[in-house]
């Protein structure tokens, strides 16, 4: 009898780290940073951001955060690039979303790993959603109807695991993602982008520094 095998070619890693920060550290970040979230999102009036935070803005809070996130960046980076390298957080900012707010579909440029640290619980309606890239190498025709099963090989989107306060989500920065309309309470996150110290392609290397 013939035996069939199915291979998942070129999978994309997304990492969830549950409870990377305890309740006291989450509270300290929220109380220390949330008051600066005064920049209105240009597509949703119920979403505000801080400016890009500098390391010296809140040195104890942000340096402690970087130390706790660092090992997980190294781990995901080793999956993406095949080597354990030193990583640094390039920029970070806080997002404060009220009921009715949403974050439009986007990705992050000039970086390699992006992260979302949840500084509050998140209503299921406003979970982070990842979308298949538009204009890729997919079939032009689709088979989409009530009886069609949706799986990892034909889905257009993937909804991340339900996060809790203190959880961390890491993903390659090129992934398109969005936050649907928030039907629950306030949603507070700290987002960041990270870069490795250097990349080497058979002796042709590029280094990144701040």
Produce a short descriptive summary:
With 210 residues, the protein is an alpha+beta fold. It has helices at residues 23-33, 59-81; strands at 15-17, 39-40, 47-49, 87-97, 103-106, 113-118, 129-131, 157-159, 168-172, 176-179, 187-196, 198-201, 204-207. A hairpin with a 2-residue loop joins β12 (198-201) and β13 (204-207).
What composes the largest sheet?
7 strands, antiparallel
Strand content: 25-35%
CATH class descriptor: Mainly Beta
Low-confidence stretches: none
Alpha-beta classification:
alpha+beta
The gyration radius over C-alpha positions equals: 19 Å
Subunit organisation of the chains: single chain
Number of strands: 13
Mean pLDDT: 94
Named CATH topology? Jelly Rolls
The CATH homologous superfamily name equals q2cbj1_9rhob like domain
CATH architecture grouping:
Sandwich
Q: Give the overall silhouette.
A: globular
SSE pattern: EHEEHEEEEEEEEEE
End-to-end Cα distance? 60 Å
- Output the number of helix runs: 2
Total number of distinct structural domains: 1
**How is the largest sheet built, in terms of strand order?**
1-9-6-11-4-3-2
């Amino acid at each position: 009898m013939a035996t069939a095998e199915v291979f998942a070619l070129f999978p994309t890693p997304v990492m969830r780290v549950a409870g990377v920060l305890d309740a006291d550290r989450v509270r300290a970040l929220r109380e220390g940073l949330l008051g600066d979230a005064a920049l209105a999102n240009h597509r949703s009036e119920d979403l505000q951001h801080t400016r890009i935070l500098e390391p010296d803005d809140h040195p104890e809070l942000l340096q402690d955060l970087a130390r706790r996130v660092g090992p997980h960046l190294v781990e995901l980076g080793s999956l993406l690039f095949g080597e354990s390298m030193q990583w640094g957080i390039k920029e970070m900012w806080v997002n404060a979303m009220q009921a009715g707010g949403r974050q439009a579909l986007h990705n992050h440029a000039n970086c390699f790993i992006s992260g979302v640290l949840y500084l509050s619980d998140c209503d299921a309606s406003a979970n982070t959603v990842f979308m298949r890239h538009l204009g890729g190498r997919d079939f032009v025709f689709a088979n989409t109807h009530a009886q069609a099963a949706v799986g990892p090989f034909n889905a257009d989107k993937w909804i991340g695991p339900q996060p809790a306060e203190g959880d961390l989500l890491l993903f390659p920065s090129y992934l398109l993602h969005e936050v649907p309309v928030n039907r629950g309470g306030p949603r507070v996150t700290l987002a960041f982008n990270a870069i490795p110290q250097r990349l080497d392609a058979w002796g042709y290397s590029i280094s990144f520094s701040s």
